[in-house]
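Students often ask why inverse folding is considered easier than folding. One informal answer: many sequences map to the same fold, so there is more than one right answer. In these notes we will look at a single instance of the problem. The structure comes first.
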């Protein structure tokens, strides 16, 4: 009887330790997802801060491109107003496409392409877009790990009781973001 008691106590202790391990794993995965979303927000804020300067610089040279400026302003405003990932992601994807179009417009204005302020803003925007892409990848990796962790047995039992649910991936659903932007190398293309 004494051995049975110790065996039962060891089994209960092992089960309790395993539940603690599962709980801590769920908390860590959720923290990684929140961190990923926070990193995206930081980079999007950085991009929002660049947009007005970039638009004003391009406006000075490309006065006939009013439609693209209005679209960027509307998308920026909509993105700042969005409160959930489901609202923000599609708007951000459209904004990325609109910014690519704005940069493509610069190919038609040689004076703009030579402007130092524009070149610095273009480089900063390019760097920011790369950081956004990296942050999205980190977020999606964290979400994938989180979703797998809460879906496998026996984690799914505990995660359901604790209120953990699947998180959405940040996907590219805008055709404009999937397209490549045509780049012209001017009249000197092909000459050495």
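Output (designed amino acids):
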């Amino acid at each position: 009887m004494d051995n049975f008691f110790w065996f039962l106590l060891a089994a209960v202790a092992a089960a309790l330790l395993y539940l603690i391990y599962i709980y801590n794993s769920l908390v860590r995965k959720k923290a990684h997802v929140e961190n990923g979303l926070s990193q995206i927000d930081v980079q999007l804020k950085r991009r929002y801060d660049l947009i007005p300067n970039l638009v004003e610089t391009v406006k000075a040279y490309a006065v006939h491109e009013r439609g693209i400026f209005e679209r960027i302003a509307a998308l920026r405003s909509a993105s700042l107003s969005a409160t959930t990932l489901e609202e923000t992601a599609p708007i951000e994807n459209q904004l990325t496409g609109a910014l690519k179009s704005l940069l493509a417009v610069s190919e038609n204005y040689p004076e703009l392409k030579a402007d130092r302020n524009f070149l610095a803003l273009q480089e900063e925007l390019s760097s920011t877009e790369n950081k956004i892409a990296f942050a999205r990848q980190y977020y999606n990796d964290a979400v994938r790990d989180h979703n797998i962790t809460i879906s496998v047995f026996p984690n799914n039992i505990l995660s359901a009781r604790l209120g953990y649910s699947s998180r959405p991936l940040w996907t590219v659903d805008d055709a404009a973001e999937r397209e490549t932007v045509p780049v012209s190398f001017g009249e000197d293309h092909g000459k050495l």
